[in-house]
Amino acid sequence: MNSENNISNIHIDPEVSGQKIIQNKELNIWEALIPVIILMVMLAYNIFFVEGQELLGTYTNQYILLMGGGIAAIVGFFNKVSLSIMISEIWKNLKSVFIPIMILFLVGALAGTWLVSGIIPAMVYYGLQVLSPTIFLPASIVIAAIISIATGSSWTTSATVGIALVGIGSALGISTGMIAGAVISGAYFGDKMSPLSDTTNLAPAMAGTDLFTHIRYMAFTTVPTIIITLIVFSIISMNIETTGTADISNFLTTIDNTFNITPYLFIVPLVVIALIVTKTKPLIALGTGVGLAAVFAFIFQSDILSGLSSSNFKSIVNAIFVDTEITTDNEKLNELFSAGGMKGMIWTILLIISAMVFGGVMDAIGALARITKELLKLATTVFGLFASTVFSCLGLNAIASDQYLAIVIPGKMFKKAYEDKGLAPENLSRTLEDSGTVTSVLVPWNTCGAYQSSVLGVDTLSYAGYAIFNYLSPFTTLLFAAFNIKIRQLVGKPIEQESMA
Q1: Of 361, 362, 461, 478, which has the fewest Cβ atoms less than 10 A away?
Q2: Contacts of 219 (CB under 8 A, 6+ apart)
Q3: Which run of H or of E encompasses 388?
Q4: CB atoms within 10 A of CB 343
């Protein structure tokens, strides 16, 4: 395998691609599962039985993850794992999310400056005139998919057009859960199929195939899944009852009276998208978006800035760092025209840090490797091998709270098993993406789930049922495996026939 060719389109953090899987012969499967079971019980109780998630205050989920990490550490101490090893793994995990955390802060600043500069209101203003309720949801999928393919990032897609689409759809009276589900479905389709995506480069690197073979082979399961998703959302769009259609003129008038709406405002998002397409680092691209939006706010929205604070400069600073609320005579628009700035991202960032602490301890004590190895034992048939890979990815998205680990660990653990079954490596790389990449956003405490929920302003459990592409993808890959559809074998090595039973 020439890994340099496989990942030539994008930089992959060596901390991720070179992830060492820690084995611990002292640890048995039941001990490995103790922290997982306790964590799941506490999280489930908090989500389903504690109204408002106030069991331990605002940061309940964060505390639960840290407690889970503490329980995992106790299990580790009883199995001869030193504190220094645990701290080392936690530190590696925290370093791996430093850039995403910085991106989150910039996304908060972006939301605030794009609001006071009139960019988000302009998107809503023009979008209301173009996107009707009957085509809105499938159109949102297509728009998000195009942007995500071009940028290689579902995160960037949500932070730009995703925010605007949620605003437009809300004004049309469409459920925010439906809108977020459509945006995420399109964004993750594009993320999977883009050669610029980090996970799309990482999966074939782990499996031992090349990038474009991986993308071509992944299309067999991905394209039918997105077509089904489009059909379902088209049916939903034609049958939903909306309350916004009759009020669009009122929305348009309110936005026009409150902001100085002009097509020139679209220069800023176009510049940001162009920077990302040309492979500019996300921090630079998003930082440019914040800076340009601040300049445009001074140029086009001086009245808005004057109404928010004693000075225009202070209004911009507040938009970047703290809460900003622009009041109109329309209650729905008041909800839309508010942003939390960098401060609004604190909850999400603390959740990610807590998840990395838990995942780091679980990795350090050898629990992740032990759980994956037990799943590998169940892979006595070809279908069993695919199913074990899928459940490993799903489990690691929940346990390790990170989509990269959900690709790296099963990729390394299952690679030889696929070779032994006579299966080409693209079978493994496709399965890693179909189950590891796309399902990360369905877990509230996973870095992806926390990010999307925070950026789109929609609770993970509210959009999860509508993220059709994301939860359908693992079923599609298992269906192909069950019926031996497009299961490519290694050249000169037939698939074990007895395993196809």
Answers
A1: 461
A2: 193
A3: helix 382-399
A4: 16
Residue whose token pair is 């199913």: 387
Q: Which residue has the higher pLDDT, 329 or 291?
A: 291
- DSSP secondary structure of 439-475: GGGGSTTSHHHHHHHHHHT--HHHHHTT-HHHHHHHH
Place of tokens 């939860």: 471
Which tops the pLDDT comparison, 180 or 40?
A: 180
In terms of pTM, does the model score above 0.85? no
Please, are residues 89 and 96 in contact by the beta-carbon 8 Å criterion?
Answer: no
- Position 330, amino acid: N
Task: Determine the Cα–Cα distance for residues 489 and 214; give it in Å rounded to an integer.
Answer: 14
Cβ atoms of 192 and 222 within 8 Å: the answer is yes
Residue 488 DSSP one-character state = P
Question: For residue 287, is pLDDT > 80?
Answer: yes
Local confidence band at 3 (pLDDT 50, 70, 90 cut-offs) = very low
User: How many angstroms separate the Cα of 224 from the Cα of each of 220, 228, 441, 464?
Assistant: 7, 6, 20, 20
- The residues, any chain, with a CB within 8 Å of residue 68's CB and separated by 6 or more, are 35, 36, 38, 39, 42, 358
Nearest to 407 by CA among 5, 24, 17: 17
Query: Per-residue confidence at 476, pLDDT binned at 50, 70, 90?
Result: very high
- What is the spatial distance between Cα 446 and Cα 405, in angstroms, rounded to a whole number? 11
For the chain, the residue count is: 501
Geometric angle at alpha carbon 267, from 262 and 272, rounded to 5°: 145
Assigned token pair, 14: 């060596």
Q: How far is CA 242 from the centre of its chain?
A: 28
